[in-house]
Amino acid sequence: MTRTGVLELSLQQVSVPEPAADEVVVRVQAAPINPSDLGLLLGPVDPTNLTSSGSGDDVVIRGQVPEAILQAFAARIDQSMPVGNEGAGSVIKTGTSDAARALKGRLVAMIGGGMYATHRVIKASDCLPLPDNVTAAQGASCFVNPLTALGMVETMRREGHKGLVHTAAASNLGQMLNRICVKDGIPLVNIVRNAAQEALLRKLGAAHVIDSSAPGFMNDLSQAVHDTRATIAFDAIGGGTLASRILTAMEAAINRSAKVYSRYGSDTHKQVYIYGNLDLGQTVLARGIGMAWGIGGWLLFPFLQRIGATDAARLRQRVLDELTTTFASHYTKTVSLRGALAPENIRIYGKRATGEKYLIDPSKSD
Amino acid sequence: MTRTGVLELSLQQVSVPEPAADEVVVRVQAAPINPSDLGLLLGPVDPTNLTSSGSGDDVVIRGQVPEAILQAFAARIDQSMPVGNEGAGSVIKTGTSDAARALKGRLVAMIGGGMYATHRVIKASDCLPLPDNVTAAQGASCFVNPLTALGMVETMRREGHKGLVHTAAASNLGQMLNRICVKDGIPLVNIVRNAAQEALLRKLGAAHVIDSSAPGFMNDLSQAVHDTRATIAFDAIGGGTLASRILTAMEAAINRSAKVYSRYGSDTHKQVYIYGNLDLGQTVLARGIGMAWGIGGWLLFPFLQRIGATDAARLRQRVLDELTTTFASHYTKTVSLRGALAPENIRIYGKRATGEKYLIDPSKSD
Q1: B196-225, pLDDT tens digit by residue?
Q2: What is the pLDDT of residues B305-328, one digit of tens each?
Q3: Which long-range contacts (CB under 8 A, 24 or more apart) does B156-159 make?
Q4: What is the rounded CA–CA span in Å between residue A298 and residue B293?
Q5: A31, A94, A346, B70: which could form a disulfide with A115 (CB 3.0–4.6 Å)?
Q6: Please, is B347 exposed, middle or buried when counting C-beta atoms within 10 Å of its C-beta (0-12, 13-18, 19+)?
Q7: pLDDT (tens digit, 9 = 90+) per residue, A27-54?
Q8: Residue B280 contacts A, CB cutoff 8 Å
Q9: Which pLDDT tens digit goes with each residue over B36-46?
Q10: With DSSP H G I counted as helix, E B as strand and the rest as coil, what are the percentages for chain B, rounded to 5?
Q11: In whole angstroms, what is the distance from residue A362 CA to residue A341 CA?
Q12: pLDDT of residue A204
């Protein structure tokens, strides 16, 4: 990003360094474009308002960061930042350590950034060898979405809630969460943004699906929250009034069974965690939800650190065990690195729409 | 409150029951009108728009709850609700238990509601005998404000913060908190709403006082938060953008020393607890504060339950030890019960303005 807020996207030709003793070189074959990647790749730039110059591998895409929020990106100015949280590929070279050598020739999943690249040099300990029956595309998304979905359920349990609410619930992540909850018998309220998404989730066996664009939304939400006793929500949207409406519905559901008036509202704690930023606008909270409520940010990696290595490993093992069932990802399109920079593709994956999920295959040439 | 949202305030003649074995009868001599009492007494009723009928002890004051929020008060309809969280007075009669008899003739502070009354029958265990050198007026406010102020400091420590921010900081509670922080060496940023309040707090030895009505507010706040390393705030206002601006200032202060850009913002948790409702409007949160933040309600009694009996007793003992110094309250006017229902008084104390604190002396006749 330049000092005047011009964000530049380009491909860089770099040489692949020799792996250190505990490292391996992976030929990347699949890396998803997750919403969390878009935060770094595009940030607040409007994906429908980009310019393109150069051609082939020398193409440069430019977009403008709105001046009003430029200050928040001060630390990004003049920095070249590789993108891609996670991916999968084949180990083509290893360092001399036993752990590195054990991965020779294996298909591995990786986490750690910089995955939108033909090759990635990475610590052996940051690789997860994939089972034999799994492809790179299937293994490419085995960290961010699966662990986030499991993290939601884990957070619900640790903080003493009995059921949960999820927004943007028809997303890849939402479908995973729904599968986990169906399998584990956890009451889940899925909030979606249109009737097609509602139909999709119902087909997947979801018991409670509420369309926020429907006229009876607040009543339906209040009823579903009452039926499930959900008092914690994970919200991918962030801006607007949805988080507030969820808290209001929870408070209303709890107060249905209240015997006496309490000026402080119910004493049951109601929590919304914002884990995504589909709407970058202001979050607006109406009052009248009592005093026992909280809202805050939720992020996967600090969560994994908080729960500690043993519990994090338990979650990772479950992902591997159910990678092609509970944690299967679906992609609408696979593109090359060059294709990922094509304005017509950025326009689609950049709008962060549910059901438009891209996979990059850096081994692919256009 | 009636079904149509008319809130009625009146005095009721009731007979004082005989105390049970573990109870005492207290002749109430002082009970403060705290913001938390106003929540019950007036709720959302406009204190400048009241009607009055009858006279003397038979006066009835009426005000209207806005229809848009009437639903939130459903449980209050047709309920007669005594008011007054805390107070002090003399024990004039006791039950037969040893604990009750030990209080005979003593001046006690009480918590438990219904203190706006000439007499209060109460459990001996809900009374705190006051030291000999303390008057009823001095002892009347020894629960809510002192324990709330101590609760803020205790919460700060328990949640791992190094300094704190307080809003509406020139209030009785704010002055107490300032005295605690000066005494205990805790970095405190006081946010006030005008220059007179700023001068008042500076006179009381506050190091950081920021006037939210001044043009350089955000810069000054950011600097003060940087200097104090405050990452937790207690907000009495609730509505509007102040909580959001505090989080923004905290994030900016932390990022001043950030070496590299993080798309998720700083990993230092920033917290705002809303403990009051001076502004009943929407709470509006701007984004750009990273993901490590929280905002939520904070209430004294659940807090005391959470920390447990031993720690709660430690806080109460400190209040008694410093009742006429650190925890001294100041009142602008003392009124009788009848005076508390005079529209010209309600208009003043009902506006919840800093520096307008009323004390009710039910033993006083007009």
Answers
A1: 999 999 999 999 999 999 999 999 999 999
A2: 999 999 999 999 999 999 999 999
A3: B156/B186, B156/B232, B158/B307, B159/B232, B159/B271
A4: 8
A5: A31
A6: middle
A7: 999 999 988 898 889 888 999 999 999 9
A8: yes
A9: 899 889 988 99
A10: 35, 25, 40
A11: 12
A12: 92
Q: Is the CB of residue B218 less than 8 Å from the CB of residue B245?
A: yes
Tell whether the model's pLDDT for residue A255 goes beyond 90: no
Nearest by CB to A75, which of B261, B267, B291? B261
A298 chain-B contacts, CB cut-off 8 A: 291
Residue B179 has pLDDT above 90, yes or no: yes
Residues 82-141 of A with CB under 8 A from B: none
Chain B positions touching A284 (Cβ under 8 A) are 282-285
Q: In angstroms, how far is CA B218 from the centroid of its own chain?
A: 26
Inter-chain contact B261–A73, Cβ cutoff 8 Å? yes
What per-residue confidence (pLDDT) applies to A10? 94
Nearest chain B residue to A258 by CA distance is B75
| A40, A284, A293 member nearest B263 (Cβ) | A40
Answer whether B88's CB lies under 8 Å from B139's CB: yes
Q: Name the burial class of residue B129, with classes exposed (0-12), middle (13-18) and buried (19+) by CB atoms within 10 angstroms of its CB.
A: middle
Record: fold of B6-141+330-360: Quinone Oxidoreductase; Chain A, domain 1 (3.90.180)
Report the DSSP beta bridge partners of residue A358.
A333
Check pLDDT > 70 for residue A354.
no
User: Is any Cβ of chain B less than 8 angstroms from the Cβ of A68?
Assistant: no
* ipTM of this complex: 0.85
Alpha helices in chain B (DSSP H): 35-41, 98-101, 136-139, 144-158, 172-184, 195-203, 217-228, 242-255, 300-307, 309-321, 337-340, 343-349
Question: Per-residue pLDDT tens for A136-193?
Answer: 999 999 999 999 999 999 999 999 999 999 999 999 899 999 999 999 999 999 999 9
Q: Rounded CA gap, A124 and A54, in Å?
A: 37
pLDDT score recorded for residue B354: 66
Residue A42's closest CA among A359, A366, A343, A356? A343
Which DSSP state fits A158?
Answer: H
- Rounded Cα distance between B314 and B316, Å, is 5
More confident residue, B192 or A68: B192
Average pLDDT, chain A: 92
Q: Does A157 touch chain B (CB under 8 A)?
A: no
**Which residues lie below 8 Å from residue A357, measured CB to CB, with a gap of 6+?**
A32, A33, A172, A329, A330, A331, A332, A349
Pairing mode, strands A60-64 and A86-94 = unpaired
Q: Where are the beta strands (DSSP E) in A207-301?
A: 208-211, 232-235, 238-240, 270-274, 279-285, 293-297
Q: How confident is the model at residue B250 (pLDDT cuts 50, 70, 90)?
A: very high
Q: Which of B248, B331, B362, B354 is nearest to B295 (CA)?
A: B248
- Segment A88-122, tens digit of pLDDT: 999 999 999 999 999 999 999 999 999 999 999 99
Domains of chain B: which residue ranges? 6-141+330-360, 144-302
Q: Which long-range contacts (CB under 8 A, 24 or more apart) does B318-324 make?
A: B318/B150, B319/B142, B319/B143, B319/B146, B319/B147, B319/B150, B320/B128, B320/B130, B320/B131, B320/B142, B323/B130, B323/B131, B323/B134, B323/B138, B323/B139, B323/B142, B323/B146, B324/B133, B324/B134, B324/B138
Number of residues written out for chain A? 366
Tokens of B307: 């920390």
With an 8 Å Cβ cutoff, is A296 touching chain B?
A: yes
Q: CB–CB of A27/A107 below 8 Å?
A: no
B73 in contact with chain A, both atoms CB, cutoff 8 A: yes
How confident is residue A70, by pLDDT bands cut at 50, 70 and 90? confident
Give domain B144-302's CATH architecture.
Answer: 3-Layer(aba) Sandwich (3.40)
pLDDT at B104 over 90: yes
